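Field notebook, page 82. I keep forgetting to write these up properly, so this time I am using the form the group agreed on. The chain and the ligand, iron/sulfur cluster, are recorded exactly as supplied. Prediction of the bound pose follows.
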Amino acid sequence: MPHRDPNNDKVLIDPDKCTGCLNCQLICSLVYADSFNPARARIMIGGSQDKREIHFTEECTACKLCIEHCVYGTLEAIEEAV
Ligand code: SF4
Ligand code: SF4
């Protein structure tokens, strides 16, 4: 079931589409922690292969880089109404 996370409410998360590739964590940790280290990313990919759980940490800046690097459609930007 797609859901939002309070630490980044500009993203609609659909865990059922997540393959666990960790591209999102790699780009986030590269940019914000200067290393390819998923543990230092501001998006957390947990759960099991059958039931993924995805959340953002309080440090998330909502920069959307992880969205751009997820090729499976798990992360979708929520456009603000104007
Ligand atoms: S890039 Fe997308 S599919 Fe890969 S782990 Fe992150 S959310 Fe899941
Ligand atoms: S929105 Fe930016 S800071 Fe937040 S998890 Fe994604 S890449 Fe990291």
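OBSERVATIONS:
- Residues 3-77 form a domain with the Alpha-Beta Plaits fold (CATH 3.30.70.20).
- The longest strand covers residues 8-13.
FOLLOW-UP: compare against the apo run.
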